[in-house]
C-alpha cells in the first residue's frame, strides 16, 4: 500500500504552517508556499518530486449550526458564520520513495484571489494552474504563461465558482419539455 | 548486421498472410458481419431495412441480445394501458442524469394488473435526442417498469417531435422483453417472483404473529384491550 | 534549482542580399486528422524545423466537473465514461474508488476480480488502438490500424455482453458492479485472452523491425527522466523515460497485490517515440498475464457490497487514483453531507502529459511533431472534459 507522509516533522520547520485535521492537509501561509514546496521536494526525508493533482475549491460564506455545551452544562445551537475562501489544493507524491500523498493547500480570499505559483517547483502545475486560473479566477504569481486554457480568451467570468450564473443567451439546443424550450417559445433564445 | 529492408519484407509477409488468410478464415477479416437479417443478406435499399421491431435480432448474434439502446416501459397483459407497471412515482425523472424523462402523474387511480389501485402516468415522454442510454432509470425503478430496449432504427426526418418518444411508443409487452433480452428478462422475472413470495411469507408471518399477539391479549382479558381492539377493528 | 524546461534553440534566419526570410506560423488543427480529435497546435516553423509550439484545446469542454457538482454521486458515473471514451471501465473504477473512500463499502471478492479483468481488457483495447493510430500518424494508413481494430472488436463484444454497451459501459457501482456477467462470458473471455498473444506476435513481426518505423521514431521526441518526473508525466510515457512507477504496484488498489506481473520500463534516459511505442507493446503482454491469473482464480458469489440506499457521505475529502492506460487517473471528491459532491475534480492524465509536448517537439521536424503527439496518446474527451 501507499505510505502516507507524516506531517509532524514539517510543521516545526516553517512558522505559520498549519495542519487542517478535517481535510487532512497542510495549509501554507501566504507568500511562503514556494519556499515550503521547494523544501519538500529537495529534503531527503520527503523527496516529494511529483505533484499529481492541482485544483481549486471555492467556499462561499456559509452559516454552520453547531451544538455547543455551555458552562452551565446545557447544549445550545450556535450559528457560526464561516467566511468565504478559496483553496488551492496540491496532491504531492514521491516517485523515488514511492510514498504519498501529502496534501498541501494554499488559502486565499475569494474577491482578489492571489497565490504563489508552484510551477517553478513542479512543471506539472503548469497546465493545471492555468486551468484553475481559467475556471476559478485565481491569480498565480510567478506563473510563466497564465492564460485561459479551456474557455476561449474572450470569455467573461469563471465557471467553476459556486456563484457563477450562465448568461441567458447561452447557446442551447431547444429540447422538448424543459426551461430552454420555454425560453425558446418566449422568443428569448435565438437559434 | 541484418540486411536493410528485411524488416519491411517480414511485415509484408504478415500482410500477405492476412490477405490470403481472409479468404479462408473469417477472423482474419478486418470487418465483422453484423447483418441482422436471418437470410444473411445485407439490405440493399432503404426499404429493405427492418420495419418490425425485434426483426433485426438474429439468434446467432449474441451481441444484440445484450446491447441496450433507449428505455421502454413494460406492461404485463394484452391491453398496454390497463396493465402498465409504471405508477408515475417520478424517481426515474429525478435521477436521470441528462434529464430526458418527462412524467405527468394521473389525477385518479386505476386498477393495475394485480388488481391494486394505483396511479398511472398521464404523460410519459422520453427525449431520445438527449438520452444517453446509461440505464440509471432502470436501476432506480422500484417497480421494474422501465427497461432498456435494443431497437436502434429510430431515424426520423422530424428533428424535435420525431425524437420525442411518447407513452404509446415506449410501451412494450413483457414477452417482447423476453424476446430481446432473454437472460436478463428471465433473471428479472425470477427476482420479482422471489420478492413476491418473500413478501407473502413475511405477510403471513406477520399475520400469524399478530394473531398470536391478539390471542395472548385476549387471554389476558383486560377491558382496555378489548376496547382498543374494537377501535382497531 | 528550478524545474527543467526546454528553451527554444538559437537560430539565425538566412539573410541574403535582397532575400528576406521569416518564420512561418502554421495552425495545425482543430480539424487536422492527425490530432486525434479537436486539438490545435500553433507551430512556428523555420523551414521545416519547429522553433515554437503551443497546444490549444478546449473545443470539447463541457465542464464535466460543474455538471457533476450539480447531480447525485451515482448520476456522475455515466458521465465518467465520456471522459476518455476508449477506457470507460478504468474511468468508472477510479470514480468508484474515490466514492468508496468517502463511504466505507466492502467490495465482494468476485466483483474485485471482475474489476481487474475489465480494467486489463480496457488496457488491451487502449494500447492496441493507440499503436494502430500511432502507426497511422507515421503514414502507414489503414493496414496496422485495421488489424488492431479487428482485435479490439472482439474485446468490445465482450464489454457489450457484460455491460450492454461497447464504449459507454457504465458498469461499475459504488461497492461492486452493476450486474454479474452473463453465463459463458468467462469462457469467451478466456478464449479471446488465449488467442491474443498470437496476434501480438504477428503484430510485432509486422511493425517492430520495420526500418521505416525505426528511423522515424528512434531519437525523435526525447523526454529526459528528470523532466518527466517534474512534469508529472504518468503511465507508459513515464516508464518509457526510465522511471519504474506503476500505481498498480505502488498503491496496490483493488486486489493487484495478488497477481504476478512485471512492469516494463526502459533503463536508459532517452524516452523517445520508439520507447513509448514498445513499452505499450510490452505492457499488453503483462496485461494478458494478469488476465490469465484473474480468469483462473475468479470465485463465485455476490457482485455488489452493502452500499447505502441513498449515497450521502459525511463531510470528508478523498483522492483516489488508478493506473489508467494513459496514466494516473485521479478523482478528488469533497463531500459536505449532502447527496451531491461539493467539489468533484478529475485529474486527467492526457492533459498533464501534454505539458511536455512543446519541449519534445522543439527543433524537430514538422512531420515528427505529428508522430510525437501520437506517441503521447491523448483523448480530447479527457483533455477538455
Question: What can you tell me about this protein's structure?
Answer:
The complex is a heterotrimer of chains A (about 190), B (about 230) and C (about 375). With about 190 residues, chain A is of the alpha/beta class. Helix content of chain A is about 15%, strand content about 30%. Chain A has two domains: about 120 residues, 2-Layer Sandwich (Beta Polymerase, domain 2), CATH 3.30.460; about 30 residues, no CATH class. In chain A, strands 1-2-7-6-3 form a five-stranded mixed sheet, with helices on one face. Chain A has a two-stranded antiparallel ribbon with strand order 4-5. Chain A starts with 7 loop residues before the first helix and ends in a 6-residue tail after the last helix. With about 230 residues, chain B is of the alpha+beta class. Chain C has about 375 residues and is an alpha+beta fold. The chains are: A alpha/beta (about 190), B alpha+beta (about 230), C alpha+beta (about 375). Chains in contact: A-B, A-C, B-C. Chains A and B meet through loops of A and loops of B.
Strand content of chain A: 25-35%
Quote the average pLDDT of chain A: 80
What CATH architecture label of the largest domain in chain A applies? 2-Layer Sandwich
**Quick one: biggest sheet of chain A?**
5 strands, mixed
Based on Cα principal axes, name the global outline of chain B: elongated
Number of domains of chain A: 2
Could you estimate the helical fraction of the residues of chain B in percent?
25-40%
Q: Report the C-alpha radius of gyration of chain B, rounded.
A: 28 Å
Compact summary:
The complex is a heterotrimer of chains A (191), B (233) and C (385). Chain A is of the alpha/beta class and 191 residues long. Chain A is 17% helix and 31% strand.
Amino acid at each position: 500500500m501507499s505510505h502516507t507522509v507524516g506531517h509532524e516533522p514539517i510543521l516545526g520547520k516553517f512558522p505559520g504552517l498549519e495542519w487542517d485535521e478535517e481535510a487532512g492537509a497542510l495549509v501554507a501561509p501566504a507568500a511562503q508556499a514556494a519556499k515550503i514546496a521547494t523544501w519538500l521536494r529537495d529534503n531527503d526525508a520527503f523527496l516529494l518530486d511529483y505533484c499529481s493533482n492541482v485544483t481549486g475549491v471555492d467556499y462561499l460564506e456559509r452559516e454552520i449550526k453547531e451544538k455547543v455545551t455551555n458552562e452551565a452544562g446545557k447544549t445550545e445551537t450556535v450559528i457560526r458564520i464561516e467566511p468565504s475562501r478559496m483553496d488551492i489544493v496540491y496532491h504531492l507524491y514521491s516517485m523515488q520513495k514511492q510514498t504519498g500523498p501529502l496534501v498541501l493547500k494554499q488559502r486565499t480570499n475569494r474577491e482578489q484571489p492571489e497565490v504563489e505559483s508552484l510551477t517553478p517547483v513542479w512543471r506539472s502545475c503548469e497546465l493545471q494552474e492555468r486551468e484553475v486560473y481559467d475556471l476559478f479566477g485565481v491569480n498565480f504569481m510567478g506563473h510563466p504563461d497564465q492564460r485561459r486554457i479551456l474557455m476561449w480568451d474572450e470569455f467573461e467570468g469563471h465557471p467553476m465558482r459556486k456563484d457563477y450564473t450562465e448568461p441567458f443567451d447561452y447557446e442551447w439546443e431547444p429540447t422538448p419539455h424543459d426551461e430552454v424550450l420555454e425560453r425558446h417559445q418566449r422568443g428569448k433564445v435565438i437559434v | 548486421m541484418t540486411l536493410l529492408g528485411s524488416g519491411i519484407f517480414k511485415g509484408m509477409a504478415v500482410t500477405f498472410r492476412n490477405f490470403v488468410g481472409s479468404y479462408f478464415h473469417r477472423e482474419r477479416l478486418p470487418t465483422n458481419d453484423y447483418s441482422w437479417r436471418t437470410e444473411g443478406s445485407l439490405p440493399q435499399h432503404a426499404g429493405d431495412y427492418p420495419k418490425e421491431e425485434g426483426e433485426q435480432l438474429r439468434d446467432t448474434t449474441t451481441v444484440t441480445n445484450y446491447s441496450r439502446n433507449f428505455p421502454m416501459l413494460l406492461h404485463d397483459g394484452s391491453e398496454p394501458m390497463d396493465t402498465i407497471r409504471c405508477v408515475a412515482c417520478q424517481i426515474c425523472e429525478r435521477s436521470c442524469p441528462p434529464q430526458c424523462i418527462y412524467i405527468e402523474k394521473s389525477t385518479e387511480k386505476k386498477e393495475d394488473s394485480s388488481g391494486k389501485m394505483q396511479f398511472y402516468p398521464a404523460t410519459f415522454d422520453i427525449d431520445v435526442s438527449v438520452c444517453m442510454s446509461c440505464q440509471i432509470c432502470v436501476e432506480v425503478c422500484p417497480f421494474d417498469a422501465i427497461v432498456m430496449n435494443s431497437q436502434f432504427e429510430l431515424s426520423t426526418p422530424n428533428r424535435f417531435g420525431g425524437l420525442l418518444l411518447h407513452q404509446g411508443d415506449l410501451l412494450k409487452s413483457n414477452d417482447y422483453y423476453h424476446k430481446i433480452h432473454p437472460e436478463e428478462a428471465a433473471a428479472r422475472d425470477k427476482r420479482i417472483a422471489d420478492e413476491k413470495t418473500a413478501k407473502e411469507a413475511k405477510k403471513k408471518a406477520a399475520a400469524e404473529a399478530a394473531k398470536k399477539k391478539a390471542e395472548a391479549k385476549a387471554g389476558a382479558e383486560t377491558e382496555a384491550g378489548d376496547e382498543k381492539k374494537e377501535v382497531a377493528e | 534549482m528550478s524545474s527543467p524546461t526546454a528553451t527554444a534553440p538559437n537560430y539565425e534566419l538566412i539573410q541574403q542580399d535582397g532575400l528576406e526570410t521569416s518564420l512561418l506560423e502554421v495552425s495545425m488543427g482543430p480539424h487536422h486528422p492527425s490530432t486525434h480529435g479537436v486539438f490545435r497546435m500553433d507551430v512556428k516553423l523555420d523551414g521545416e524545423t519547429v522553433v515554437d509550439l503551443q497546444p490549444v484545446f478546449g473545443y470539447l469542454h463541457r465542464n464535466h466537473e460543474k455538471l457533476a457538482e450539480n447531480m447525485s454521486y451515482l448520476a456522475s458515473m455515466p458521465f465518467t465514461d465520456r471522459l476518455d471514451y476508449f477506457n470507460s471501465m478504468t474511468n468508472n473504477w477510479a470514480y468508484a474508488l474515490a466514492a468508496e473512500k468517502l463511504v466505507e463499502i466492502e467490495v465482494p471478492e468476485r466483483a474485485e476480480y471482475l474489476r481487474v479483468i475489465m480494467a486489463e481488457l480496457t488496457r488491451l483495447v487502449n494500447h492496441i488502438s493507440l499503436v494502430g493510430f500511432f502507426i497511422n500518424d507515421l503514414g502507414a494508413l489503414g493496414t496496422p490500424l485495421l488489424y488492431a481494430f479487428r482485435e479490439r472488436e472482439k474485446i468490445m463484444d465482450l464489454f457489450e455482453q457484460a455491460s450492454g454497451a461497447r464504449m459507454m459501459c457504465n458498469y461499475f457501482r459504488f461497492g461492486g458492479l452493476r450486474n454479474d456477467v452473463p453465463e459463458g462470458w468467462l469462457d469467451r473471455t478466456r478464449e479471446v485472452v488465449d488467442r491474443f498473444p498470437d496476434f501480438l506476435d504477428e503484430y510485432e513481426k509486422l511493425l517492430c523491425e520495420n526500418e521505416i518505423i525505426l528511423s522515424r521514431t528512434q531519437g525523435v521526441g526525447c523526454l529526459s527522466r528528470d523532466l518527466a518526473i517534474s512534469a508529472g508525466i504518468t503511465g507508459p510515457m513515464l516508464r518509457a523515460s526510465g522511471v519504474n512507477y506503476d500505481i498498480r504496484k505502488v498503491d496496490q488498489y483493488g486486489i493487484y497485490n495478488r497477481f504476478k506481473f512485471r512492469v516494463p520500463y526502459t533503463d536508459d534516459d532517452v524516452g523517445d517515440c520508439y520507447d513509448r511505442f514498445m513499452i505499450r507493446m510490452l505492457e499488453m503482454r503483462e496485461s494478458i498475464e494478469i488476465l490469465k491469473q484473474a480468469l483462473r482464480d475468479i470465485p463465485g458469489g455476490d457482485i455488489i457490497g452493502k452500499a447505502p440506499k441513498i449515497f450521502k457521505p459525511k463531510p470528508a475529502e478523498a483522492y483516489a487514483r488508478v493506473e489508467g492506460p494513459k496514466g494516473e487517473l485521479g478523482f478528488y471528491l469533497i463531500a459536505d453531507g449532502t447527496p451531491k459532491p461539493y467539489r468533484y475534480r478529475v485529474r486527467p492524465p492526457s492533459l498533464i502529459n501534454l505539458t511536455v509536448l512543446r519541449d519534445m517537439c522543439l527543433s524537430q521536424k514538422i512531420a515528427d511533431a505529428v508522430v510525437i503527439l501520437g506517441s503521447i496518446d491523448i483523448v480530447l474527451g479527457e483533455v477538455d472534459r
